[in-house]
Amino acid sequence: MNMLFERKLAIPMEVKEMYPLTGNLSRIVEERTAMLKAIFEGKSDRFLLIIGPCSADNEDSVLEYAGRLRELEEKVKDRLLLVPRVYTNKPRTTGDGYKGMLHQPNPSEKPDMFKGIIAIRELHMRVIQETGMASADEMLYPENYKYLDDMLGYVAVGARSVENQQHRLTASGIEVPVGMKNPTSGDFQVMLNAIQAAQHKHTFIYRGWEAHSQGNPFAHAILRGYMNKHGQSLPNYHYEDLMLISQFYQARDLQNPAVIVDVNHANSGKQFIEQIRISKEVMHSRRYNPDIRKLVKGLMIESYLVDGAQKVDGGVYGQSITDPCLGWEKTERLVLELADAAV
C-alpha cells in the first residue's frame, strides 16, 4: 500500500475516559435531543433552525457565536428551537483545502489527527457546558462518530456521502435525528433510499465489530439544491419541489416524514445573502399549504459573526474560512423574522 501509518490513535472509549461527559451535561444533551425528537414526531409545533458557521475553525469565535445564539433563543423559544452548527469535519469536493478542526485544530498548522479528536470533543463539550445547547455536526467519517456520539443532538449526512452504504448503516444505529441530504445530482429517490435504509435494522461491520443496529425512526430529508451536468447550481426549495418530496414521502412507508431545507449551498449558489430570501420563501410555502407546513420542520442556515468568507490566513475574527456565511446582525434579524413567520 502506498500509505504511511504514522501512529495508532486512541479508540473512542479511551478518549471518553480522558474527557468524560459529566452527568449534568449528559442530561442537557438528553433534554435537547428530546426537544428535537418531539418536533420530528409532530408533538411540538416549534420550528427548527440548525444554524451556525460553515466550519468550526476557531474555538473562541465558535463559542462566542453559540453564546449569542443561546441568548437569541430565549427571545423565540416558544416558536423556534435553535441548534448550533458545530461542524468539525469539512468535506472537500476535490480533496484540497482546509478539512476542518478534526484534521487541523489550528488551520495554519499541519494536520494532527489525535489533537483534532481531542479538540473537537472539547469544543462540543464546552458548547454544552457554556450554553446549555447540544450541537449538530456532520458525519463525514462514520467510524469517527463514536468519538462524539454522547454529545450531539443532531447529525447530518452530506450530499457526497448519502449514497455510501456505511453512512446509511451507521445512521441506522444513531439515536438522535439524522438528516440525509439529497445527493449533488439532486435525485430525491437516492435520498429517500438512504432514509429508508437508515430507518431499518441492520447487521454490519463497524470499527472491527459485528454490529446490530435497531433503525433510526428520525432519519429525514435535507434539501440542499443540486448541480446539473454543466456544473451549474440549481435550487430545490421552491413550492413545487416541496410538493414533489411530499408526494414521494407519501408513496413510501417511512416513519416521521420530515424535510429540513438547507438555504445555502446549491440552493443559494453559495450566495450567502440569498439565505434570507430563501428562508422567507420556504416560510411562505408553509403558510400557504398545510401539508408543507406539516412536512417542513426547519431550516439549515450558514451564519457566523462576520459576513462573507476569507482565506485561511485572513485574520478576521469570526469570519468563515470556508463557505461564506451571514454575519451576526443579519442572522439575528432573520431569526426574529422567522419566529414571527412560524406562528
Fold and architecture overview:
By secondary structure, this protein is an alpha/beta fold. The termini are far apart. Strands 2-1-12-11-8-5-4-3 form an eight-stranded parallel beta sheet, with helices on both faces. The mean pLDDT is 95. The relative contact order is 0.14. The chain has a single domain (12-341), classed as TIM Barrel (Alpha-Beta Barrel). Helices cover 39% and strands 15% of the residues. The longest helix is centred in the first third of the chain and has 19 residues, at 23-41.
Through-space gap between termini:
58 Å
CATH topology name:
TIM Barrel
Q: Biggest β-sheet: count, sense, barrel? A: 8 strands, parallel
Q: From the 3D coordinates, which CATH architecture would you assign?
A: Alpha-Beta Barrel
Helix and strand composition category: alpha/beta
Keywords:
343 residues, alpha/beta, TIM Barrel, eight-stranded parallel sheet, two-stranded antiparallel sheet, 11 helices, 15% strand, globular
Quick rundown:
This protein has 343 residues and is α/β, with parallel strands linked by helices.
How is the topology of this model organized?
Elements: H1 12-18, H2 23-41, E1 47-52, H3 59-76, E2 80-84, H4 113-131, E3 136-138, E4 154-157, H5 165-171, E5 178-181, H6 188-199, E6 202-206, E7 209-213, E8 219-223, E9 226-227, E10 233-234, H7 239-250, E11 259-262, H8 265-268, H9 274-288, H10 290-295, E12 296-302, H11 328-341
Parallel strand pairs: 1-2, 1-12, 3-4, 4-5, 5-8, 8-11, 11-12
Antiparallel strand pairs: 6-7, 9-10
